[in-house]
Design goal:
3 helices, 10 strands, flat, four-stranded mixed β-sheet, alpha+beta, Immunoglobulin-like
Length: 173
């Protein structure tokens, strides 16, 4: 992006921008004060209903934001030319056991793990995955080599899709 052009554009029209921002602020403040005056003139039962409704909305928003913990798992793909066998290196960032966990690669391959222990680091070799069939059911075990791009993790915390970064290991790494 050409930042100099943006700076020149803003500098050229700065007075117009300030004037429009000031007008928008004043209009918004006028509307808010008019609404406040209207609210103050209402009967107490209507005020209570409005305050209760706003309180309920705030509680729902706070509850949703607190209740949805992110899936505490990080992952990356590692390919090894030395011994062969690509694998996904995973790490649990949770301080409690996660059970059960389903791993899905590229919406095609599936692997189930019964438990992941707190702060556990582990590997999933790609040859341990199965073809996914039906609704999260395992099919035959994967026989060909493949390099996945995305990993979906499904666990009691929710779902998380991770774009796999590739780390190639060689003799000296």
């Amino acid at each position: 992006m050409d930042y100099q052009r943006v700076i020149d554009f803003l500098a050229r029209d700065w007075e117009k921008f300030v004037e429009r921002a000031t007008n928008a602020y004043e209009e918004g403040l006028d509307i808010a004060l008019d609404q406040w005056d209207t609210f103050r003139k209402l009967d107490n039962k209507y005020k209570g209903a409005i305050i209760g409704g706003l309180g309920l909305i705030v509680l729902v928003i706070v509850g949703l934001s607190l209740g949805s913990e992110p899936v505490p798992i990080i992952a990356n793909l590692e390919t090894s030319g030395v011994l062969g066998g690509s694998f996904i290196a995973l790490e649990s960032e949770s301080e409690e056991i996660i059970s059960p966990v389903i791993f899905i690669l590229d919406d095609t391959y599936i692997y189930r793990k019964n438990e992941i222990y707190p702060l556990q680091e582990f590997k999933l070799f790609l040859k341990e995955f199965h073809y996914m069939k039906g609704n999260l059911e395992e099919g035959d075990r994967v026989k060909e080599d493949f390099l996945p791009y995305t990993l979906k993790v499904i666990c009691p915390f929710g779902e998380k899709e991770i774009e796999l970064t590739r780390k190639k290991k060689g003799w000296f790494r």
